[in-house]
Known about the structure:
Elements: H1 12-15, H2 31-55, H3 57-77, H4 83-106, H5 112-134, H6 145-172, H7 177-197, H8 202-225, H9 237-266
Amino acid sequence: MSATTTTGARTPRARNRPAGGTLSKVPAVTAGFWAVKVLTTGMGETTSDHLARTLGPVPAVAGAAVLLAAALYAQARADRYRPSVYWFAVVMVSVFGTMAADVAHVVLGVPYALSAVAFAVVLAAVFVLWRRLEGTLDVASVRGGRREVLYWAVVMATFALGTAVGDLTAATLGWGYLPSALLFTGLIAVPALGYRLLRLPPVLAFWWAYVLTRPLGACFADWAGVSRQRGGLDLGTGPVSLVLSVVIAAAVLWLTLQARGTTRTDT
Length: 267
């Protein structure tokens, strides 16, 4: 589904160029976008768990915060959407967002139900602020400045919210990781079908699906990584993180080559 309405066919480059000629700093919403997004959510979940266990919570959070700051700085400096820069920022948001939700639960003792509600309130507040200040939540309009700051605030909140919701269903409610993953697979089809069949507003459909990608990817990754006693495949969070990192890197390389080919064609 696209976050923008269209009146006719658009080239790949045009999809990333909002009205006014300025290039968007986020990718066009395609099947490839959704695939990489789900992969980053799973990778962020298992990487966060692995680093917290091997390095300790404090060093892991501190290191992730530094890398996140560097990633967002590089994204802010970019003059347009650059796949490697953008997706590295998303990966670091995924890792740090997972840690934020886990720290609230494990260190501070906040129940996942409460943290999920809190993150949902934060997300809603940022959406309201973004809409009030900019007049649109369309991601194709993200070209830098205040709008980009609001965009990444929303992305961060969706990752933290999704982590809390996924752990709530899988652990607190005891449904398990695979059943939870299948639940979110069904739920994410709702905005897709609503957009295709019921004329659900595209921006609403996009953000609805975007929020659900987090618990979807995280639950599948946890199911692969955790022990059999916890209902998983016991592949280990480290190996799962490594495999997902390689797949993401390959996908981003493909997107980079595709973007370069499109640029040469358009010029």
